[in-house]
Design a protein that fits this description.
CATH architecture of the largest domain: 3-Layer(aba) Sandwich
CATH class of the largest domain: Alpha Beta
Number of strands: 12
Structural class: alpha/beta
CATH topology of the largest domain: Rossmann fold
Helix content: 25-40%
Number of helices: 8
Bound molecules: NADP nicotinamide-adenine-dinucleotide phosphate
Strand order of the largest sheet: 3-2-1-4-5-12
Largest sheet: 6 strands, parallel
Order of helices and strands: EHEEHEHEEHEHEEHEHEEH
Number of domains: 2
């Protein structure tokens, strides 16, 4: 197997697992973080932090550092960096690691929406909401004075929440028991989720199903088509099968 110089665009658990797998397969791996999380869980291997300065900056970085492969292992909702990677890669092999989206079961009650604004509009008057969309996009929900509830994120936001909202700072995974307890204890009438996919945060959906709570499910944004794998193993196999020149 030929060792490859790999840049992982990270910020996800899958990206960390991929870094671990590729390093143990003998590749030279750097993970890139945007720098939005103050204390990200550190992956194995080298780490760089901060934006590249758009597609052009990324292209220059890839060329100067002479990467063989770029893996876009960013969150399914990180649309800008994925578009930049597709534009910047040029002759450098670009692969994506992305878990499949969740699919509603017959006993689920999902309200499918296209984006955050549509999610806000989908909530009925005086709903008691559990928000699980991170910290960057909660403002339009909080601005609706009739809504109340709980918002969960990994790190706190700078601006305090109004008294009708409770803040939970926690990192997944969560147990089914604790998710059911949370929805029940706060009298939640609607769960709001991005369709992130994966098993790590799926327990909230199982809890909502058990309690017959509707889920406002936000669809994934568009990302340019690139060769995509849904598992670390399959992507590792692709890279390990590459010959002396990436492609
Ligand atoms: P985004 O909107 O797609 O990207 C915004 C800008 O952040 C990009 O233009 C880029 O700056 C920089 N950036 C994003 N990911 C980067 C990376 N891995 N390395 C270096 N620069 C990066 O991204 P986002 O939605 O804000 O997400 C930021 C990070 O958080 C991503 O790495 C993502 O995997 C992670 N994350 C996002 C979500 C979510 O719901 N969006 C959830 C969990 C984790 P330049 O243009 O200057 O290069």
């Amino acid at each position: 197997m030929q060792s490859k110089k790999v840049l992982i665009l990270g910020g996800t658990r899958d990206a960390r697992q991929l870094a671990f797998r590729l390093i143990h397969a003998g590749h030279d791996v750097t993970t890139s973080f945007a720098g939005v999380t103050e204390h990200p869980v550190q992956p194995e291997g080298k780490v760089r932090v901060g934006g590249f300065g758009g597609a052009q900056g990324l292209r220059q970085y890839l060329q100067v550092e002479e990467y063989d492969v770029v893996v876009d292992a960013t969150h399914p909702f990180a649309a800008i960096i994925s578009a930049n990677a597709a534009e910047a890669a040029g002759d450098i092999l670009l692969l994506r690691l992305e878990r499949p989206a969740w699919i509603a079961r017959p006993d689920d009650n999902w309200i499918d929406v296209e984006n955050i604004e549509a999610a806000v509009s989908a909530l009925p008057l005086n709903a008691s909401v559990m928000l699980t969309i991170g910290r960057k996009e909660i403002e339009p929900f909080i601005k609706r004075a009739d809504l109340k509830g709980v918002t969960r994120m990994i790190e706190p936001r700078a601006i305090a929440l109004p008294p009708s909202w409770n803040l939970i700072l926690e990192r997944p995974p969560f147990t089914l028991g604790s998710e059911i307890g949370l929805l029940h204890d706060h009298g939640i009438t609607h769960l709001v989720s991005k369709n992130a996919g994966g098993s790590e945060t799926e327990t909230k959906l199982v809890a909502a199903r058990n309690l017959k709570i509707p889920v406002v499910m936000i669809a994934r944004p568009f990302k340019p088509a690139v060769t995509t794998y849904s598992t670390v193993e399959a992507l590792n196999t692709h890279i390990s099968k590459l010959g002396s020149s990436a492609g």
